[in-house]
Amino acid sequence: MSIAPAPSAVPPAADAQPLLVLERLLKIYGEGCPDCVARTGPAAGTNVCPRCRSVVACGDLSLRLDPGEIFGIVGESGSGKSTLLRCLYFDETPTAGHAYLTPYEAGRVDVFAISPQRRRYVRHHLLGMVYQHPHLGLDLDTSAGGNIAEKMLMAGTRHVGRMRERARELLGRTEVPLDRMDEPPRRFSGGMQQRVQIAKTLANNPPLVLLDEVTTGQDVSVQARVLDLIRSLGRSLGLAMIAVSHDLGVIRLLAQRTAVMKNGRIVELGLTDQILEDPQHPYTQLLVSSQL
Amino acid sequence: MRAADLLVARRSGYNFAFLDEHSKREVRRALLKAVAIPGHQVPFAPRELPIALGWGTGGLQITLSLIGPRDVLKVIDQGSDDSVNAVNLRRLITRTTGVRTTTDTRRATIIQTRHRVPEESLRADQVLVFQVPYPEPLRRVEPSDVQTRRMHAEQDYSRLWVYLYEDIVRWGDVTIPHRYPVRVHGRYVMDPSPIPRWDVPKLHRSPTLGLFGAGREKRVYAIPPHTRVEPLEFDDHPFRVEDFGGERCRRCGSGRSFLSAIYDRATGRRYYVCSDTDYCERRIAGGAAQRAAAP
């Protein structure tokens, strides 16, 4: 791909308030036991607890995200990166941990602990999620415009004309032909479905967008256009994003800071350039050296 | 209870109003909860009845559990007192209670109805009992009951709104002819039973208690008197009732009632009559009286 690497992060002012603070996120599939966290992780070489056979998908993950920042998470399949995103988007209930979003109650309330109704509010007003598979984020049998309208309806818009205007604007931005706005995305190509999904995600101007393997499984030219789109949207709208991928190329293009995950833990975290040029952890070294 | 009523009930071989007292109490308990949470579907345990499920067993059990010997009963089926469903239900109720019946909406204390609200304005001392085939307004967009219950709990009605949006985009207007979803007391979205859109505004802040029973689906729900009942509508696509294009009832001449289209086989032409037969008859009688009074 011929897109220049992401500009390196502007160091945030020391007193700048972060957009998101995630503290000690724990997600265990299975019964769990007191030894789960201690006996799993990269040192143990597994995320399955040898005692109770539970899977520790995310073990005590903490991170901070600044407004407008694009944060990358890279790691192999099963390292827990998608689970992290799904917990943040309330698709999964974390076993333990806290998350604070500055736009919600000034970041004083743990969004993992609020009622389902409040969670809906956070999910639809403050967050956006682009899934790897468009069918997870879209209703493929509802028109593209209807999909975008759904997000706005969830946020309380009750005006068809205004919703259609907004849908047109978003589909224009994401380069979906406007004359296909009232067609169901099932009839669209994969790349176009992905762009409709991105348009839907942006409908309510969320300050934080989560990207889960957005380009995996698409051909290279489509990948490049989708990444280019995400970057320009991020820049023009000032969106903060967390981009998950197993592809270092994607991370290099998008992210200013990156975390490397393995066996449900963050093994290395820092500026993307630094991690790619001077990997410290053996797993990161392996990842970087095995790039084609 | 009058001696004659007791006699009727006893002669039928059944308890007063067919159901045993404990069953009636169970229905009433569910109704109290339904009234306390307007528009919320409350589960109840329907009893075996001598009519088939789907023929008004939900409404019937509500009526049977509420009716007393001094009540005056009216039963209608799509506005008509004389159609089969109404006649059979009325017969069952009168044979096991001995209550008086009427076709006059103004004289009835309990009105059991299938798919219509009478044209006559109802009062606070009357109860309107609806027969409901499908109590779940979200069924159009979600087949799973677990999901629809979660959606009600979280007030997540966006998919129903998307349904309306898609309708408008495709057809230029909402095409739902009956069972038009309404929001009750600003909270629960409710299926008002298959009444035409014409009848939906009559539910809004009505002084009459509205009770809804779905026997097959085992649910009751209610609209307490004076409750807000608002059809789902967009700011730029307001809810509209049926438009009969200036047609009038052929019998009574009414242009302000819900009309049924009738096909005249002899002439091949379509004409209209009031769906509410009591309203129509009374207008005809009133017109005749006026003519008689005129010099």
Order of strands across the widest beta sheet of chain B?
1-9-8-5-4-2-3
Task: Let me know the average pLDDT of chain B.
Answer: 93
Tally of DSSP helical segments of chain B: 8
Largest sheet of chain A: 6 strands, mixed
Determine the N-to-C terminus distance of chain B: 48 Å
Structure report:
The complex is a heterodimer of chains A (292) and B (295). Chain A has helices at 81-88, 116-126, 134-137, 144-154, 160-173, 190-201, 220-237, 248-254, 272-277, 282-289, and strands at 20-29, 55-65, 70-75, 96-101, 127-130, 208-212, 240-245, 257-262, 265-271. Chain A is of the alpha/beta class and 292 residues long. In chain A, the strands form two sheets. In chain A, strands 5-6-7-3-8-9 form a six-stranded mixed β-sheet, with helices on both faces. In chain A, α4 (144-154) packs across α5, α4 runs parallel beside α6 (190-201) and α6 (190-201) packs parallel to α7. The longest helix of chain A has 18 residues, at 220-237. Chain B has 295 residues and is an alpha/beta fold. Chain B folds into two domains: 2-140 and 150-231, Rossmann fold; 244-295, no CATH class. Chain B is built from eight helices and twelve strands. Chain B has a seven-stranded mixed β-sheet with strand order 1-9-8-5-4-2-3. In chain B, α2 (21-36) crosses α3. The A-B interface holds A 116-117, 120, 139, 142-143, 145-146, 149-150, 153-154, 158-164, 182 and B 153-156, 158-159, 161-162, 165-166, 168-170, 233-237.
Keywords:
heterodimer; A: 292 residues; alpha/beta; 3-stranded antiparallel beta sheet; 10 helices; B: 295 residues; Rossmann fold; 2 domains; 7-stranded mixed beta sheet; globular
Short description:
The complex is a heterodimer of chains A (292) and B (295). Chain A is of the alpha/beta class. Chain A contains ten helices and nine strands.
Describe the protein's topology.
The complex is a heterodimer of chains A (292) and B (295).
Chain A: E1 20-29, E2 55-65, E3 70-75, H1 81-88, E4 96-101, H2 116-126, E5 127-130, H3 134-137, H4 144-154, H5 160-173, H6 190-201, E6 208-212, H7 220-237, E7 240-245, H8 248-254, E8 257-262, E9 265-271, H9 272-277, H10 282-289
Parallel strand pairs in A: 3-7, 3-8, 5-6, 6-7
Antiparallel strand pairs in A: 1-2, 1-4, 8-9
Helix pairs in contact in A: 4-5, 4-6, 5-6, 6-7
Chain B: H1 3-12, H2 21-36, E1 42-43, H3 57-66, E2 72-77, H4 84-97, E3 100-101, E4 110-114, E5 127-131, H5 145-153, H6 158-171, E6 182-184, E7 188-190, H7 200-203, E8 209-214, E9 219-223, E10 229-231, E11 259-263, E12 270-274, H8 277-293
Parallel strand pairs in B: 2-3, 2-4, 4-5, 5-8
Antiparallel strand pairs in B: 1-9, 6-7, 6-10, 8-9, 11-12
